């Protein structure tokens, strides 16, 4: 799910979304089930360096109140450096304060409309293999794993403690093969790199290269323009 760009753009009715990050999936559950409370709690936070570090520490002690947990995640996403989500080896969120001109932390209308879109959606939290149980013939699955790095010197971005290894990329490939054999249609985005192309050689899936611009970077000029790869069995099915 991540930021849910494809979900919120397609606006499907029903279905299920999944991510391994429990704080993120709690956030979407709160958006779905308690949007007004979320707006109220997050609306009480100020954009200010001291407040940022106080709330970041609060987030790291993992509040028991799930609405507060979601409000803190929203606040940190809107006021932290570049909107990054990064944790250290202990699982602590460690993104520094971000400098913005009057950032809007809460857009009530966006939260309410996201809440309506999520109304009949199953919000899951676990490894992507959950799909092997959840998906049925005729379903469409969009998969957006942490990207395989362009070279061995590049590092994986740690979206969740532990990161996403080459072994995870192989498990994902094997799952796509299994989904295909069951008549499930999938579309996966990944980086357009040799290791990814190698992984899918011989599967018969269609590989489509797309020129892209990375969305998370400090300066527009330094956002790397690369190529993403869409991997799909949609035409075969
Ligand atoms: C590239 S991001 C997704 C971006 C998202 N599609 C968007 O529009 O913002 C990758 C996501 O995969 C999640 N993830 C990492 N390992 C996973 C796993 N084993 N199973 C499921 N999700 C995983 C991360 O927590 C992260 O949110």
Secondary structure elements and pairings:
Layout: H1 5-10, E1 16-19, H2 22-33, H3 35-43, H4 49-60, H5 66-79, H6 108-117, E2 122-125, H7 130-134, E3 140-143, H8 166-181, E4 185-191, H9 194-200, E5 206-213, E6 225-232
Parallel strand pairs: 1-2, 3-4
Antiparallel strand pairs: 4-6, 5-6
Helix pairs in contact: 2-5, 2-6, 3-5, 4-5
Question: Overview of this structure, please?
Answer:
With about 240 residues, the protein is of the alpha/beta class. The chain has 2 domains: about 20-120, Adenine-specific Methyltransferase, domain 2; about 125-230, Vaccinia Virus protein VP39 (Rossmann fold, 3-Layer(aba) Sandwich), CATH 3.40.50. Helices cover about 40% and strands about 15% of the residues. The protein has 9 helices and 6 strands. It has helices at about 5-10, 20-35, 35-45, 50-60, 65-80, 110-115, 130-135, 165-180, 195-200; strands at about 15-20, 120-125, 140-145, 185-190, 205-215, 225-230. The strands form 2 sheets. It has a 4-stranded mixed β-sheet. A two-stranded parallel sheet has the order 1-2. Strand 3 (about 140-145), helix 8 (about 165-180) and strand 4 (about 185-190) form a beta-alpha-beta unit. Mean pLDDT is about 90; it is low at about 155-160. The structure holds S-adenosylmethionine. S-adenosylmethionine binds near residues 127, 128 and 146.
């Amino acid at each position: 799910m991540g930021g849910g760009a494809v979900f919120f753009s397609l606006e499907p009715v029903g279905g299920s979304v999944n991510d391994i990050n429990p704080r993120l999936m709690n956030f979407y559950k709160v958006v779905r089930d308690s949007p007004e409370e979320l707006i109220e709690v997050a609306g009480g936070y100020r954009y200010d360096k001291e407040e940022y570090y106080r709330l970041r520490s609060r987030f790291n002690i993992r509040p028991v109140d799930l609405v507060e947990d979601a409000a803190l995640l929203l606040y940190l996403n809107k006021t932290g450096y570049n909107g990054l989500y990064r944790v250290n080896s202990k699982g602590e969120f460690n993104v520094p304060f971000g400098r913005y001109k009057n950032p809007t932390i809460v857009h009530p209308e966006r939260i309410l409309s996201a809440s309506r879109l999520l109304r009949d959606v199953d919000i899951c939290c676990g490894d992507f293999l959950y799909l092997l149980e959840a998906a049925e013939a005729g379903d469409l699955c969009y998969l957006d794993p942490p990207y395989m790095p362009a070279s061995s010197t590049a590092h994986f971005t740690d979206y969740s403690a532990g990161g996403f290894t080459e072994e995870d990329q192989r498990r994902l490939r094997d799952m796509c093969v299994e989904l295909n054999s069951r008549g499930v249609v999938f579309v996966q985005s990944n980086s357009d790199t040799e290791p990814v192309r190698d992984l899918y050689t011989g599967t018969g899936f269609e590989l489509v290269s797309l020129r892209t611009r990375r969305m998370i970077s400090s300066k527009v000029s330094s956002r790397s323009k690369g190529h993403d790869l869409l991997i799909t069995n949609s035409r075969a099915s």
